[in-house]
Amino acid sequence: MPVLGKVSPIDWGNRFRPILLTQPAAWQASDDMLNAVVTALSNWAPISAQATGIADDGPAGIGVIGSGLKERGVRITLDGWKAGAKARVSEWSSTEYVGPVRSWKAMSSQEFRGHKFETAIWKIDKNVPHGHSICAEVAGYEERMPCVTTKR
C-alpha cells in the first residue's frame, strides 16, 4: 500500500511537486516509477469521468483535483516572485468564455528548495460539463492561460 501514497504528487506534475513533496528522500520514487504506477493503476481501475489534471502555459500553471465531473479544488502557480500578483479561475467551453469560477485573489509567495513561485488555492466543489475547461488567469499574463478540460 505504500506505493499508493506515492501516486498523488504525479497528478500535479513536476511544477507542483515542490509544493506537495514534504516527505523524506526515502519516501520519494523516481519519475519513471511514479509514471509506471499511475499507468498501472489507471488501467486497473478506470473511471467514467475525469476532472483532475494539470497544465502549464509559460510561467503560469494550474492543477485541478476532482472526482468524476466535480471539481474539488484548484491551485494556480506563477514562476518567480511577483509582488502584488493576482489570479482567478474561469470556465470555458471550447473558445467561449462561460464565466468566472472564483474571483481575483492575491497570490502568496512561496519558496521550496530554492525554487521561488507564487501560488493561490481555491476549494470550488463545482460540477463542470463534459468538454468544458477550468482555466487559470493571472493578472499581467493575459497571453498565458493554462486550462484543464473535463472529459468523460
Structural overview:
With 152 residues, this protein is an alpha+beta fold. It has two domains: 2-44, no CATH class; 53-149, Immunoglobulin-like. Helices cover 19% and strands 46% of the residues. It is built from three helices and nine strands. The chain has helices spanning 2-12, 17-20, 31-44; strands spanning 53-57, 60-67, 70-79, 86-93, 96-106, 108-112, 115-127, 132-138, 147-149. The strands form two sheets. It has a five-stranded antiparallel beta sheet with strand order 1-2-3-7-6, with no helix packed on it. A four-stranded antiparallel beta sheet has the order 5-4-8-9, with no helix packed on it. A hairpin with an 8-residue loop joins strand 8 (132-138) and strand 9. Helix 1 packs across helix 3. It is globular. The two termini are 28 Å apart. 26% of the residues are buried.
Could you write a compact summary of the structure shown?
The chain has helices spanning 2-12, 17-20, 31-44, and strands at 53-57, 60-67, 70-79, 86-93, 96-106, 108-112, 115-127, 132-138, 147-149.
